[in-house]
Amino acid sequence: MKKKIRRQFMVVTTLAIAATLFIISILCYDLFRAQVFEELKTIAHVVLYTNGNDVEAISGFVEEYSQSGRDDIHIMLIDRDDNVLADSKADTTAMEEAYYVDTPIDENILLRVSTNSTNLYRVCLKAVLLIWIVVVVLWIACMLLANVLTSNIIKPIEEMAEDIGKKDTGWSYEELQPIMETIRKQHEDILYSAQIRQEFTANVSHELKTPLTSISGYSELIEAGMTKDEDTRRFAGEIHKNANRLLSLINDTLELSKLDTLSGEMQMEPVDLYELAKTCVGMLELNAKKRGVTILVEGTKAYVNGSRQMLEEVIYNLCDNAIRYNKENGHVTVCVENRMDTVVFRVIDTGIGIPKEHQERVFERFYRVDKSRSKSTGGTGLGLAIVKHIVAIHGAELELQSEEHIGSTITVTFKKNDREKI
Which among 214, 238, 260 is the end of a domain? Predict the structure, then answer.
């Protein structure tokens, strides 16, 4: 009985597998055939799209293709009587072409793209062995579990497609949760980046519009001859001031754009922050005197590995802000400390300070605590955003401490590499 049952089981299994192989082979053949025709149509479309309906141009293309060395695709120009006008193959007798697509160029000429199918059955036969093994192993399991597993796998994806921000999908497979969290996080980052860029574009447009409006208004009055000599001089000064503001906005915007798209490794070199600080302070001393502010540098030589130009921009912007938003007879102290594992750069001022509710946002683009004061002092609202970008690029830490009406301290802490440690 065992042998009979086993024999019957083997017969049924063999018939089932044979039927499965037969059906899959037909499906594979139809799929391959459809794919071949789609590829031939695509090639014909590309040839016509590239050369138009110009028979001479297409003939030239066929000639060039014949010299490319490819023999899997056969391209011909023929007339309605099957006379060959151009052929990509010198010898077509060895090519058994089962598939071809004819595309009319005009009333008398066709573009024929063809290929052979000698490998079709060979490919199918190679797949039979693998299909046999897979069918035997998975036949019963797939029939019972395919629908259930498919539903369970697709369910959370469908729920995420409906609401990508939804976190509780009620799904029990923890292995794919990190992937879905990554997708969700990337989606949130994309939305955030788009929002930031949109806000930045709107802010740039607004900031550029103000000085341009002033320049346009003053210049129109002068051009119309509606000003007196003293007014003309004053208006020219306003035009000059707004033009300088416009240039500053454009330069800072370009700098931020460059930092946003910075890719690859920067040109790094050892930079002495103390010497760089003295250079920047020297450039700002005249401006500080005009505003009645005293500025000095303290500390010792301290080397960090970075971009000299970028670090100079950080120091200059921080010192310029400390002067710009200081009080009359105020002080700015620039400190450079060379510690065991870090180099600390600090700018301390006795200025107007920053209220606590604004301190987290002062490094945002175009964010101003006092908009009227910022514009009157010539600030663009981008200096601290540039500082934040450069500090991040150098892997340093940025810290702000400020108290309204007392002053602010901005600290940048650079890590030393092993060669710089002492």
Answer: 260
Number of structural domains (the chain) is 3
For residues 318 and 235, membership in a common domain is answered with no
- 273 and 378 co-located in one domain: yes
Residues 245 and 275 in one domain: no
Note whether 281 and 247 are same-domain residues.
Answer: no
Q: Same structural domain for residues 274 and 212?
A: no
Phi, psi of 98 (to 5 degrees): -95, -25
| Domain match, 316 and 369 both | yes
Closest residue by Cα to residue 99 from 28, 35, 29, 37: 37
Residue 369 DSSP code: S
At 336, the amino acid letter reads V
pLDDT score for 199: 67
Taking the C-alpha atoms of residue 194 and residue 262, their distance in angstroms, rounded to an integer, is 18
Q: For the chain (length 422 residues), average pLDDT per consecutive 10?
A: 46 64 76 78 84 81 77 81 80 60 84 72 63 67 55 63 60 65 78 71 66 78 75 77 71 66 69 93 90 93 89 90 90 93 93 84 70 54 81 89 91 76 48
**CA angle (381 as vertex; 304, 369 as ends), nearest 5:** 110
Task: Give the single-character DSSP code of 338.
Answer: E
pLDDT score recorded for residue 278: 93
User: Which domain, by its residues, includes 55?
Assistant: 2-118
Concatenate the DSSP letters of all residues of 31-89 into one string.
HHHHHHHHHHHHHHHHHHHHHTT-HHHHHHHHHHHHTS---S-EEEEEETT--EEEES-
